[in-house]
What does this fold into?
Amino acid sequence: MATSDIATFCPLCVSRCGARADVSNGQFTLRPDPGHPTGRALCIKGKSASDIGSHDDRLLYPMRRTAPKGASDPGWERISWDEALDTAAERLLAIADESGAESVVFSAVSPSTSAIVDSLDWIDRLRHAFGTPNMCVYMELCGWGRYLASIYTYGDAVPGKYMPDLERAECILFWGYNPSVSRLAHATATAAALRRGAKLIVVDPRRAGLASKAAHWLRVRPGTDAALALAMTGVMIDRGWFDEAFVRRWTNAPLLIRSDNGRFLRASDLSSSEAGDHFVAWDGTAGQPVALDPRANDASVPHDQLALFGTFDVPTHLGTVPCRPAFDLVAEHCRAMSPTVAEAITTVPAAQIEAAARTLWESRPVAYYTWSGLEMQDGATQIIRAINQLYALTGCIDAPGGNVLFEPVPTNPVSGVELLDDEQRARALGLDERPLGPARFGFITGEDFYTAALDARPYRARALVGFGANLLMAHGDSARGRAALRSLDFQLSVDLFMNPTIEQADIVLPATAAFEAEGLKVGFEISQEAQSLVQLRHPLVPPRGEARPDIQIVFDLASRLGLADRFFGGDVDAGYRHLLEPSGITLEQLRADPAGVRLPLETRHRKYAEPNGSGVPAGFPTPTGRVELYSETFLEHGEPPLATFVEPATSQRSRPDLADEFPLVLTCAKSLHFCETQHRGIGTLRSRAPDPELELHPDTAAARGVGPRDWVEIATPMGAVRARAVLNSNLDPSVVVGQHGWYEPCEELDLPGHPPFGPGSANLNLVLSQTPSDPISGSSPLRAQVCEVQRLAEVGDVAVAHS
Ligand SMILES: Nc1nc2c(c(=O)[nH]1)N[C@H]1C(S)=C(S)[C@@H](COP(=O)(O)OP(=O)(O)OC[C@H]3O[C@@H](n4cnc5c(=O)[nH]c(N)nc54)[C@H](O)[C@@H]3O)O[C@H]1N2
Ligand SMILES: Nc1nc2c(c(=O)[nH]1)N[C@H]1C(S)=C(S)[C@@H](COP(=O)(O)OP(=O)(O)OC[C@H]3O[C@@H](n4cnc5c(=O)[nH]c(N)nc54)[C@H](O)[C@@H]3O)O[C@H]1N2
Ligand code: SF4
Ligand SMILES: [Mo]
It folds into this structure.
């Protein structure tokens, strides 16, 4: 039976490319759908989607372990779905009963790298309803900077939710982000913007992807991005290249900071009869302080009278206190990071720093995106703060061609945050050590999970429920991760394939592949047109074996756990209907037309200036009601209130004791052909990238006797792993770039696997550590690590087999 031209989308990565499918003999092919807002192109992974689903290694039946953990063979035994779900529910309920629901940790594969996006909110609902505050989904490695860290500056997720308006931007800034590999729909939209004359600035140690088309490619030393952002900010302030009206009116720049304690001056400091939550600015015309009510979001004097620079002696009811507008402190702080100072830190020439700052100003509106290059840093939060601040100066937030909150399709939230009470929420792992970090938002770090499992600190993590997620390979300290999983009393894993993480499981459940089940996508994010589309992916082929959709497994498990009343009586369709209800779109409509339904939504810009319910401008949802260039919240937690550069803790400059033995800096990047730790077993993909690679400068290679395609050993203070050398003369000679995620063999091509642990491993995260991590977010230093490289004279069987 053949069917052709079915509208669909590929959910295999964050791009969610619109596609057309032709189905024949149980196989299908996808091609781009130019009529779809993300459909201009498909990558090789999308084109191989059928091969991924039909691969021989797919998990087809529920299984249970019969050998003890740590045994070389888990002794998998096929069981029925009923037995698997009943046993899992029984074990989880018993553990929650004995040790509290918080002792059960949930995890999931990243929605940026898989079809789990179809089900993630429902998985979140399950753990909320079950009662655990602990969700381990790489927030500290992948989402923190784009989503949560920016809340401390903007009160909302920039650029995660406030997406770059690439259709209207005149200047596009990609910082530690390479959409040509990682998000095709962004790459094609950027290429279109460049064709109409927009300018591109790329900050990346590699000249990757669109960097070759950029007006400025700033080759930053890994992990020093905050120094670069501060220097650019300083140049913009000094030259007057900033949107003064926006900065004065909508950032906390004019608010006075007390020199005695670094806090905002409050109106109640001036006179005890004034409101304690009102801030104070300096009226430069009248030469006196003026109170600002953060809720009224306006001043009693014209905003352009408020001073941005200077020191003012303010008479308080306890005596005179010298105060400075926050902006004066920002300016001083950034000036100290002059382009020359920044050049010495970042290796980016001072002239390029100035030129890029000029382009940011002269080519407005500016839209930007940051991602992995900045997330896996021990200074991630401050790096993001520095870039958020730089961007605020352009005044482009929520302006056409800037970073915009495209109007979303109205839906009912289903992640069930309200189902978890405050007492349970407060038990999130890591919350005590890092109260501003991911745990505050319900996400825990890999390191906090491992510590709870191994050291019972602050309490013992006893069980894991994982929907995908190759935790051991994806977090640093893979060996510690394995010990942590082995120490658990129970692990339930849902996946399509076996991997080193689910090898530790007690029960394994088979999930359907992307095109074997329905998948609902509300909004395709990258533009208003994309965000207005709701599409239900129709199955193209039947489920293999006894595989079930993740969402069905969530609902089935919820029912077994006695939570059916929270899950619409265990009926997935009822759940979908509830979700869709405010949109006016029905499930029937979506089932009738696989191309989906588009709502006529229009973007509202500059929503911060719109009146809120009380009739005053909405402002930004931060403590000062404004974009926070100065953060009293950080000050209160002992962190710098101004965006600050901190040298990476794992660099030669921080660790001169290691510099001789490990003279190179190791960072990493994604592979075009695979998602994260997946897909090495798929012949069509592996044939294009048969081996793990390490990019290095030709001089660096020559000095070590390394030639192109030679096997090399990458050594860090934690040990060594291997990869093949790829020469790249665009790199700084002291920087090398690796890839994580290598272990799987490809039998079809007779290509070997690499042991995830021990000698001969190619698992980069075996020799990268989760600590020392970012003091605020717990982000791991996976991208600025001292290392040394040497040619492997004698490679083991694994490596030579195909050389
Ligand atoms: N093909 C493919 N697509 C994917 C994925 C995949 O594995 N493969 N994974 C998905 C996921 S989960 C994610 S999170 C996204 C990530 O998408 P991206 O963020 O684009 O991913 P990377 O290539 O890891 O990193 C981006 C760039 O950061 C640079 N970089 C490294 N260190 C630094 C640094 O210190 N500073 C700066 N400024 N840049 C640095 C790298 O050279 C790289 O070019 O991609 C998603 N899409
Ligand atoms: N050194 C280094 N480490 C990194 C990174 C890096 O760039 N460098 N990147 C980090 C980032 S950004 C991320 S997001 C993480 C990614 O880490 P993970 O999200 O764990 O990554 P994957 O390897 O893509 O997927 C893990 C498992 O999910 C399964 N899976 C795929 N699709 C589905 C599905 O639809 N349902 C179910 N149930 N399972 C599915 C796959 O078969 C696979 O076994 O890794 C992080 N680790
Ligand atoms: S970039 Fe490739 S894997 Fe990602 S959604 Fe598009 S076709 Fe699928
Ligand atoms: Mo990610």
